[in-house]
Amino acid sequence: MEAWAATSGEPRYIRLISKGLGRRGQPVVRLEVQALDPRIITQPLIDGSYAMISMSGTLVPIEAYRDVIGLPADIVTAQYPSPFHEENVLALVVRGVTTKETYRGPEMYKKLAERIAEVADAVPANVGVFTASYEVLEGLLGAGPADLIKKPLLVEEREMRSSKNDRLIRDFKSHANRGGAVLLGVQGGRNSEGGDFPGNQMNAVIVIGIPYGRPTKRTKTMIDYYESQFPDKGMFYGYYLPAHRRMCQAAGRAHRLVTDKAAVIFMDWRVATAFVKRSLPSWLRNRLEVVGDERGQLSRRLRAFFG
Fold first, then answer.
1. Do 120 and 268 belong to one domain?
2. Is the predicted pLDDT of residue 21 greater than 90, yes or no?
3. pLDDT digit string (tens) for 220-245?
4. 105 shares its domain with 207
5. Contact 205, 128 (CB under 8 A)
6. Does one domain contain both 149 and 15?
7. Are 26 and 115 members of one domain?
8. How many domains, in total, are found in the chain?
């Protein structure tokens, strides 16, 4: 309540009252205060520093990162070659599948489940699957992937306690050298952004859809705020780019060591468009291949990659 009162009239924050469900399924009402501008935290650090080095595999486009974080316009920028050997990275976009709202339905979810099973069968060990949202994850589960996938299927739950999630990840990693398993989670979740899965702990990452937000009051406020700060860039900075970054974070879970050999499979044809592709880090963008919609093409490409 103190935070609610302290941010009154402050345009850098949005205050929300929302309805939802608690851990036991009971209806709850939440008061939320959300910061819209990361410069609230980063600007004092930047202003108090003589020099700064910012680096990551997901800063593309660098100009957008510079603006949003509050770095000066004359910063030195650089992009370096990928440390991953060409033969250790396979980046694919699958035609004919998407999580775009107008295409969602039982038929699309069944097709996605079949493609996941195709990947799991062609990959030697563990596979990570990260969906655009819990809604998409639940739609996938409704298509019965457990009946199609021969490996154990482990599912990240909404509102999952940390201790339970830790057990889930330990179980998943334990399958790395005994046939493999499939982890099903969400982009922007703790496992798609905070987890590291080197070696056989994740031989392939399947990224299903792009996590664009729904047109809610929260989303609109974010876009309007960025438009006020960066004219003509509000939609890109406040809506598209955050989703692309979450997607890229998920895509990088398997390549943690220079020696890691893994495939990244984007199951959404929109990733191959110039608009989305430009937000991919160069180590994926420069190697991106488009795979046809016909059954078997994906598994043949994966088997050739893993030998």
1. yes
2. no
3. 999 999 999 999 999 999 999 999 99
4. yes
5. yes
6. no
7. no
8. 3
| Pair 27, 55 in one domain | no
Q: Residue 69's pLDDT is what? A: 94
Range of the domain at 26: 1-35
Q: What digits encode the pLDDT tens for the residues 97-123?
A: 999 999 999 999 999 999 999 999 999
Domain at 245, CATH number = 3.40.50.300
**Could you tell me if 226 and 272 lie in one domain?**
yes
Q: What is the DSSP string of 82-134?
A: -SS-GGGEEEEEETT----GGG-SHHHHHHHHHHHHHHHHHSSS-EEEEESSH
CA distances from 151 to 122, 124, 145, 169 (A): 11, 11, 10, 15
Average pLDDT (288-297) is: 93
- 149 shares a domain with 269: yes
The pTM of the full predicted model, rounded to 2 decimals, is: 0.92
**What whole-number distance in Å separates Cα of residue 91 and Cα of residue 288?**
5
Check whether residue 92 and residue 111 sit in a common domain: yes
